[in-house]
Amino acid sequence: MIEVQGLAKYFGRFSALRDLHLDVSDGQFIALFGRNGAGKTTLLRILAGLSRPSAGSVWIRGSRPGSLDARGFTGYLSHNTALYLDLTALENLRFYARLLDLSCADADLERRISRVGLAGRAREPVRNYSRGMQQRLAIARAFLHDPAVLLLDEPFTGLDREGTELLTNYLDEARSHGRTCLMAIHDVPLGYALADRLVVIEKGGVALDLARKASTLEEFQRRYRDLTEEC
Amino acid sequence: MLGKVWAVLRKDLLIELRTKDSLNAMLFFGIVVLVVFNFALESLRDSIRTAVPGVLWVSFVFSGTLGLNRMFASEKENSCLQGLLMAPMDRGIVYLGKTLAAAIFMFIAEIAIFVCSLIFFNLTVWSEIPWLILVFSVGTLGFTAVGTLLSAISVNTRMREVLLPLILFPVVLPILVNAVEATNIILNGPDYRALKLPLAIMTTFTVIFGTVSYLMFDFVLED
Amino acid sequence: MDLTKQKKLDAFLLGILLIGMILALYMAFLGAPRERTMGDLQRIFYFHVPSGIVGLLAFAANFVASVMYLIKKDRKWDSLALSAAEVGVMFFMIVLVTGPIWAKPVWFVWWTWSPRLTSSLVLWLLYLAYMLVRAYVPDPERRAVMSAVFGIIAFLDAPIVFFSIRWWRDMHPSAMIEKGGIDPAMVPAFLTCSLVFLVLLVYVIRRRLFLESARVELERLERAANLVR
User: Fold this and answer.
1) C161 in a domain, yes or no?
2) What domain count does chain C have?
């Protein structure tokens, strides 16, 4: 359960978010749409606990975002991979597993690395990886502790067709396990296909919020276009 | 908790072992400073031993500042800090791991710089070495205890790493004054009993700022 | 406190200040006795030392405001911290300027590296560093947090700085030893000047705080205006 009430975030004169309300039930899959600068990244960062709200209240499963409890069940993935370029894939995952209190044997980690299609390159420094490969490893890192709440900010950036399929598989699996997910995404058809709830953020607030079942893709695209072309 | 501090420390040591970026820069810079001082203090040629404490610690501080800057600059790359921030642990653990890493790097650089100074300035020190190691260690810990916090602050400002020396040097002045005096007492001074006070002040400094930095680190860390 | 009460208090303080300054000048130049060795030059002491005391009080205020901001996260504390730091820097500049003016005729050097003067210099540098931190963090909320942390560090550092320098001076004594005690006949003038400077401190901080609060309010209004567009 995620409860966002009257959330506002200022950066001096500029308001990134104003009076945002959003309630998410467990197991829901939300696609966040919106123009650049609409506030999607800010919202996700606040939910992850990486940024503090200027006003309003946010609760994730009864905890404050960024609290010790919340960090234990939250997974965050953005287009910044948070990977140490001079360590190998295995060393990166080993490090994060240690911080997440997971006792993963190397064999287990290597299996995860294979799963994202990087088998055989587990002991190379991440610096040698292409952008797409780094993003895949970042996916493995984000899902390391099988978080109950997934916060993804444009996770498909830099992924080729195979990588996109891979991430889609991960998300389908997460959904079947009842995980909650908020994903900011630019690709409208892809977001529509993956989510069961569509939310459009505009000018720092929720401008549109409907269940996927309530609208066809074309209808949604039309309404989205109308909304964002208003100015 | 100690296990996680070790994990953070180990990660930084591992990266450094592989790239040797920080250590190379720190060593090189420290030695260059020694050479510059040699030219600057030519007139003290005969009594250079009196100037050595000051020269050493200036070199250490410049070198250490370089190391501190690297500490968080490498976390900014790829937003690695995000990964640390999302880990379910007290953020002070990052502080402890980073401070220890910075102290270790700085200490290694100090030993190398010191050995070079023995060669450059024709010094003989044998019985003094254990005492020197003590003073170097305490001074380094104090320096990095507050330096890690200030590095985390400066790396998030518009001037980034350039700001660190500006805000760090006034704050670590007590360490500098006491460390130079202590080194002077060991190398040139009357007797070792006078070491009690500077060591006490440096230790107090380290304890106070180590604790305060640990407690306030959460406020300062951000991506 | 609403605006009219604020204005009344400021006007009242200003009144006391004007009278007090005249009284202080009289006491320092005419009321207090002439010092035996330094003559009239010594009268700088009545402005040099109170400036230092008042500057320290300003930095203490910065410390308290910084701690309160980190606890309460209320912008008002940040405005107070900034105001106190700026005013403290100003008073320490008075100390650093009057110091050499006093030293040159007496000891024939501009700077004596005495514990008091040196500590004043380092403190001044510490709070200038505080201003630098503020200058280079663009986001107001982050700026408030970072500078509060640095303000706390700076204040905790100050006593250690003072003791270190004093001990260092003991190890390397110089010929220029500053006089310790104060002649009882000089006490009234000293107290008058100290009190007047204290009122000055409060007044200037209040005015600076008013300015800063107006800026914060302007920011809030600009934010609201941006939304309407």
Assistant:
1) yes
2) 1
